[in-house]
Q: What sequence folds into this?
């Protein structure tokens, strides 16, 4: 038997879906490109040497008669929806992973249809019929496989086999490590001489966790055939749902999809409040005539609210613009996002829906690049911490290092008053402060001024009359430590040029530590 | 998990690739907080534009420009401002976790700007030297293409390209500080917005730059009672004396 909590899963895979969705079979050389790179190609194109990730020019040079299409997500989603609907007729609770790939738990349906092989045949037949209807392709390729857990089942679908419950680990052992979908990990494993899932699975799990972290440990569990997603994620204890009423009802995709962001943010706020992330999203729509449409989307990738909105758009394409049998008879009046399965946010689940946004990912990638360009000590983020001086209260954290937690917010008696200065000099600037008789102003040990400040000059610059000032505020920090201890008297000064300074006197030398710009 | 299959990238497709029509006008604007919003055409900062910020109180003005976009999930980067007062930034409501700081970008600072315009929505720079006109044009084109905003801080050395929008602050004297008493509390200032995108003539507002809580605030016509201000000044004095 497989591991505890492993779900027997059937995966329906339509290879080269972007090509099929455009209405092409496997015998014509077709490539689908996005941003100038090949994202899918037909079997005929593959035979001529076209490969995924190739530049458009390079692909065209391999095959003279290559048909190049721009990617159209909406079409892919629209044409896949009838396939999902056809599969859902045989087995409810179909989860769409992405257009071209969906999965279902076999336990109930297999018993009903008389075993897993029979279920496979029925599903493949229904899916094939739906594909040829939706895409106008004569003999579409649809592959169906069953194994323990969706990871192994997807590989089983490639080979069109039903892997027995006890044989998942043996089945997986022969696959190369790139099938894990973690290019960095796979690259490293190959360089370590571990080329197959079997070799990876044979490593000591504790050592893998220590060396590769939680994500590496999860990858190894997949390799061992222990895709126990149900243990990691669960049905939420309370109903987590975001609802939007559309008035007037939306009949077009773009008007309805506009609600996606609101829904996503509403759901994510609820998830965040409980420290959860969504691993299975149910999108529900209700029409004016009371028709109810439901689809479940599996979150396998790292997605933000944009991705949720995109799923909704795809879904709506299928319902409103498509030719699906269940096309609604009226406009959509109510949309909802429901978290059907959740997992604790953080740890190995970090970055699922409710985690990192597209803007975050773009920034993180770009800043990593900049650090590579300028060096490790050039890019920082700031963090607050406790302290009394403006320079003490912030710290710079090199990009890539762990940011400290919330600083010591608690009272710091003697700290400079609000508002905080807009410019804090990294190195205090030396200043001369004199009284009306042009004698340097000094502060006694007891905090008494020799005279009122009347003139200020910064770093040998021109002297300005002082129009307002206050102080001294005495600061005697770490007096118990002869080296770190310091005694300072702080002042605020405003010169005639309206520049306001935060300064201090230490050993009868005036310093400007910050400027209120 | 399906390594060899084409992967659908979530949310990263540009609208053109996505094939879903035009980007909404509101998505091309980054929101700013009041009272700047009422001063700016479209109540925000236009993506892809070049913005100049200068004048006394310019750093405070600069920080208050970042507040709105950062609250909406944008990231920002500040290049060549090693003295930036981060505590003042936090007091304004800026999440420092989304602000990349490049205090000393070195000689390749224009290259750093190009990378940052790809990465974040708002890039603030105080030029550490003169920028070549060709570099400035290249950066402006990059900002337009990526929908990010380049904010040039400080008047000197001048930026070769004319900004789409120029914000200049003229700060007046600080309030709250006497001779030997009180503390700096707030500062009235005039903010003038001009430039190609301001719709003709310059627009002006008077505001607190900053107000007593460190934020940019609208000046109200009625003043607080004098007694309140005295009490406030005294409480601050006590707090500081600790």
A:
């Amino acid at each position: 038997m497989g591991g505890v909590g492993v779900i027997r899963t059937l995966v329906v895979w339509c290879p080269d879906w972007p090509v099929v969705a455009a209405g092409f079979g496997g015998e014509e050389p077709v490539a689908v490109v996005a941003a100038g790179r090949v994202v899918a190609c037909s079997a005929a194109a593959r035979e001529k040497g076209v490969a995924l990730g190739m530049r458009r020019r390079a692909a065209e040079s391999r095959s003279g008669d290559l048909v190049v299409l721009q990617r159209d997500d909406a079409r892919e989603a629209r044409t896949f929806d009838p396939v999902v609907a056809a599969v859902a007729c045989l087995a409810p609770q179909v989860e769409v992973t992405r257009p071209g790939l969906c999965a279902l738990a076999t336990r109930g349906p297999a018993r009903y249809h008389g075993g897993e092989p029979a279920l496979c045949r029925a599903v493949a037949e229904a899916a094939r019929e739906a594909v040829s209807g939706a895409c106008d392709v004569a003999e579409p390729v649809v592959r169906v496989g069953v194994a323990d857990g969706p990871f192994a089942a997807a590989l089983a679908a490639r080979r069109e086999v039903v892997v027995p419950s006890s044989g998942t680990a043996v089945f997986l052992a022969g696959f190369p490590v790139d099938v894990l979908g973690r290019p960095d990990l796979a690259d490293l494993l190959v360089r370590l001489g571990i080329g197959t899932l079997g070799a990876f699975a044979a490593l000591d799990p504790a050592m893998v966790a220590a060396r590769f972290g939680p994500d590496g440990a999860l990858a190894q569990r997949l390799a061992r055939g222990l895709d126990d997603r149900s243990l990691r994620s669960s049905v939420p204890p309370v109903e987590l749902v975001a609802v939007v009423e559309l008035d007037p009802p939306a009949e077009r995709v773009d008007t309805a999809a506009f609600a996606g962001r609101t829904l996503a943010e509403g759901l994510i706020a609820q998830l965040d409040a409980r420290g959860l992330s969504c691993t299975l999203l149910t999108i529900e729509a209700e029409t004016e005539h009371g028709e109810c449409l439901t689809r479940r989307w599996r979150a396998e990738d790292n997605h933000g609210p944009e991705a949720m909105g995109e799923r909704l758009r795809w879904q709506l394409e299928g319902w409103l613009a498509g030719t699906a049998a269940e096309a609604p008879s009226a406009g959509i009046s109510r949309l909802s996002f429901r978290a059907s399965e959740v997992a604790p946010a953080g740890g190995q689940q970090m970055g699922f829906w409710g985690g990192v946004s597209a803007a975050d990912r773009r920034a993180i990638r770009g800043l990593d690049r900049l650090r590579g360009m300028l060096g490790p000590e050039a890019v920082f983020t700031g963090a607050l911490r406790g302290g009394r001086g403006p320079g003490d209260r912030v710290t710079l954290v090199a990009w890539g290092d762990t940011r400290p937690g919330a600083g010591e917010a608690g009272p710091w008696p003697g700290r400079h008053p609000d508002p905080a200065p807009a410019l804090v000099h990294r190195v205090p600037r030396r200043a001369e402060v004199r009284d009306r008789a042009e004698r340097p102003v000094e502060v006694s040990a007891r905090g008494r001024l020799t005279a009122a400040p009347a003139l200020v000059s910064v770093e040998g610059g021109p002297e300005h009359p002082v129009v307002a000032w206050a102080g001294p505020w005495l600061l005697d920090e770490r007096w118990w430590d002869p080296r770190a201890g310091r005694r300072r008297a702080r002042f605020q000064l405003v010169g005639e040029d309206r520049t306001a300074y935060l300064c201090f006197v230490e050993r009868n030398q005036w310093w400007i530590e910050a400027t209120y710009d | 998990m399906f390594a060899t299959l084409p992967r659908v990238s979530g949310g990263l497709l540009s609208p053109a690739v996505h094939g879903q029509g035009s980007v909404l006008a509101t998505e091309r604007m980054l929101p700013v907080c009041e009272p700047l919003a009422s001063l700016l055409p479209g109540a925000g900062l236009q993506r892809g534009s070049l913005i100049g910020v200068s004048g006394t109180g310019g750093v405070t003005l600069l920080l208050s420009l970042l507040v709105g976009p950062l609250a909406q999930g944008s990231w920002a980067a500040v290049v060549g401002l090693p003295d930036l007062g981060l505590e003042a930034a936090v007091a304004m409501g800026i999440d420092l976790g989304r602000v990349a700081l490049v205090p000393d970008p070195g000689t390749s600072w224009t290259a750093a700007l190009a990378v940052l315009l790809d990465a974040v929505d708002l890039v603030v720079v105080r030029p550490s030297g003169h920028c070549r006109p060709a570099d400035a044009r290249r950066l402006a084109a990059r900002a337009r293409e990526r929908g990010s905003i380049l904010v040039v801080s400080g008047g000197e050395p001048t930026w070769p390209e004319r900004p789409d929008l120029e914000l200049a602050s003229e700060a007046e004297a600080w309030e709250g500080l006497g001779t030997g008493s009180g503390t700096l509390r707030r500062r009235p200032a005039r903010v003038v917005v001009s430039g190609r995108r301001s719709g003709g003539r310059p627009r002006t507002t008077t505001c607190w730059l900053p107000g007593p809580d460190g934020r940019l605030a609208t000046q109200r016509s009625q003043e607080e009672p004098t007694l309140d201000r005295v009490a406030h000044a005294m409480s601050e004095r006590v707090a500081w004396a600790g």
Notes: Chain B touches chain A through 83 residues (CB under 8 Å). The two ends of chain B are 59 Å apart (CA to CA). Chain B has six helices and 13 strands.
